[in-house]
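Hey,
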Amino acid sequence: MNRFFAYANRYRILSPEEKQFITTHARVRRYTKHDYYLLTGEVALHWCFVLTGLVGGFRYFSDDTEDLFWIVGQNGYFTGTKHLFSNRSTDLDIKFLDRSEILQIPLTNIRYAQQHFDGISEFLHVLKQKKIEETKLLLAMNKVKDGVQRYIYFRNHFPHLVHQLSMANTCLYLNISNSTYKRGQRIYLQMRND
């Protein structure tokens, strides 16, 4: 709980009442690598703040291929629904990509907090803006046609994910092959050493 408050306080000092509300309604849950939070079609009516670790949203296609649709790391958030104000399924498997701890709050409580506590509302807006900025970087990355250059872009703009993601998950996320990953890694490291 203290890690959540310490991070929130970087953007907005939460009042004692706001902290008490969070403490009352939140719980910290721990997961190991490869644990599922939920499967496609399931709903978990919670807002989740990642204290440590890494979480991914996977979708699967009829030809048995998979796509790593989104990733959330430390100090990011996800919901067990389409979004904070939805009770519908994300239609994704949500899986932990690393040993993780999350702070989990029921959606009804976080919605209430957003409407009744200015500090919590402002902090949620900060988190959403961070997610929007990251999405802009992802959209730019996905426009890079060459897989090697996409890998280099990823290394430059998402350094916090580089060492947390396995090669297989990085390839899924970037839509590149293992050989492109290795070539991109080699070129990136050469560029850094020049």
